[in-house]
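Example 3.2
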Amino acid sequence: MAAQKKPLLKIQFTDLWRSFDPVDNYIYQLLSTVYQLELSTEPDVLIYGRHGQQYLQYNCLRIFYTGENVRPDFSACDYALTFDYLQHPRHFRWPLYVHYINYYNAWQQLQTPLTRAEATAIWQQKTKFCCMVVSNPACEKRIDFFHQLSAVKQVDSGGRYLNNVGGPVADKMAFVKDYKFVIAFENSAYPGYTTEKIVEPMMVHSIPVYWGNELVHNDFNPASFIWLNKTTNMEAVIQQMLEIDRNPELGINLLMQPVLNNNAYFEGAKAENVLPFLVDAIESRHQIALVANNPYKRKLHRFKKLYAFKKRKLQQTTTYKMWQKQFSK
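Structure, written as tokens:
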């Protein structure tokens, strides 16, 4: 019997990150298992991100996607894929760390705890103390922690920012695997916002020193990493690191901990659960009222963008920064 022919779907991607490949990406690969895809300037479906406004030129079904700390605006998109714990029928939680686990095909590894013998052998190979690979200088808390820890013990910085190893490293994973600890601070903090920063050290059995998502314990076992959160401070975290560094058994026990919490959000992020959401969204395009054709939502979206622009300008002023610093104490 001949294989059933896949339905044709005209698709386009826009306003995503600079190196984004419209064919070699995870969403395209997922959809190609169901549809015969054709990149088109007059698409049935648009997948767009936050890096531009080209999406406004398309009058088709719009699906917003981002791994960054940005909320979806349903006055501009029909559906959204983000990290957020957003209770909305057209939203799917798909945090950025999931894509890295998929890319490295690391689901099974992260779901299989190390034996004591395995953890001991790995810990003995960790010849260096702590590192950081950062190119974005925006997170003051991360930089403060780097300097405080560096005052106590050498911290190697392999990124473009604060580099002290002779230049940016070519292979991040190969670089961090020799270290016991990796500074894994997010660029910013928001509930649910978890990127690759916590999973990359885990995939090479280094211990992440994490700050960012206050709900990170929903996805990751807090016993498997060091967590700077509301109940701890930098000094306490540094002392914990030094104690583990002095006592190999503490490090070995930490490596043996299960990494992931297999909750509903974690399970939902797997490909077999993302694909039905995407297909349902795409197949709804003939039944729902598209936001691109709604004049009220177009006006609302323009107002929101103008408000956001004015707010950013205000936040860049010296007076605002002084006020924010004063009231954050």
